[in-house]
Amino acid sequence: MYFKTFNFIFYMGMSVLTFFNLYFKSVGLTSSQIGTINSIAKAVALLCLPLWGILSDYYKANKKLLMITVFGALVSSLMFLAGQSFWFITLIMTLFLTFLLAAVPLADAQLLGYLGEDSKQYGKYRIWGSIGYTAVVAGVGYFIEKTAPGNIFYLSGIVYIVTLLIIPKLPEQDVSIEVGSLKKFKSLLHKKNLLTFILFTFFIILTLKTNNIYFPIYVIDHGGKEFLVGIALTIAATSEMAVFYFSEEIMEHFRLKYIFLVSSLAFALRWFLLAQFPIPAVFLASQLLHSLTFGLFHVTAVNYINEICGDRFKATGQNLYATAKGISSIVGSFIGGIIYQELGGSTLYLYFSLIALGAGTIYFIAIRKNDNISYVGS
């Protein structure tokens, strides 16, 4: 029950994070500057990310490290209130993401360790994160629309304080994690199926992470308000719940190559609709595809990485996956900011659609030709 409560509260904080870039825009930063801030911050966080996983696996300190990362996110989020210059925001965003981005895979590793052989039930715990996100995101949008964007940092501080109170109550892992040698860790990086999947993840998640940065700005630039952004994100989070809940059944009945192909095609359609029809109705309706894009992709990917890496490198594997997502986010943040500023948001989303279509098709063909790929639920 405590894992469900943790996800519920922690992902409330993620709903607040969605509006950070609107705050940056409100203090006069350009789309290119916002992209640069996110790129620099995520690049530094990315360099640190694998170290969190290695420390967790080798010293069995996963819960302690989770406490440290959430506390760091709490302190750094409040530091945003101390200044508004480009370089100050860049510095604080770097500190904030270094802690926050590490907390997600550490929490996933803690849950997967607790579930043990029942790891396919991950989605039924992760759904509570979606419920928490959905419960507040529209309200957060309405709140900052009626007050001031800077108030989001007070909200995030409250969420992280509550999260810190829950972490000590999280159950310990039921499985004993064997600590592997450095040589065996290096062998993880030579798994062809892992590297192929990481490359596929890079391109697919590039489109999603960049959307997370620029979608609120895209809506505002086309006449929408913060409350509309909140409603759109509520629809997105609600739509993914069914996928999380039935994820175990999905993975038992369908092979990975078909799951990822469907997810990729849904990504392509979602971005195409946003590119061609930047109107409120499409801003809202397109969010229904979040279930087949992020929801379907993420829950399957977490289980697949867990199966490839095994108990020995559970946290390390999740951090490698998070690292791939981090690299794609860095590239997307920087290049996306330039494209958005120079060519517009519609062009950016059209490029996203083509990238998702191409990546999904190529990965589907690649794994069909590789007989050594292992499948979840096949």
UniProtKB/TrEMBL annotation:
Annotated organism of origin? Halanaerobacter jeridensis
The residues covered by the Major facilitator superfamily associated domain are 3-350
Q: For this protein, what is any one GO molecular function term?
A: lactose binding
Compartment(s) where it occurs, according to its Swiss-Prot or TrEMBL record: Cell inner membrane
Q: Which UniProt keywords apply?
A: Cell inner membrane, Cell membrane, Membrane, Transmembrane, Transmembrane helix, Transport
Tell me what topology the record assigns in the membrane.
Multi-pass membrane protein
Q: Which InterPro entries match?
A: HcaT-like, MFS_assoc_dom, MFS_trans_sf
Annotated TM spans:
7-24, 36-53, 65-82, 88-115, 127-144, 150-167, 194-215, 227-246, 258-275, 281-299, 320-340, 346-366
- A Pfam family annotated for this UniProt entry: MFS_1_like
Q: Which GO terms describe its cellular component?
A: plasma membrane
**What is the designated name of this protein?**
PPP family 3-phenylpropionic acid transporter
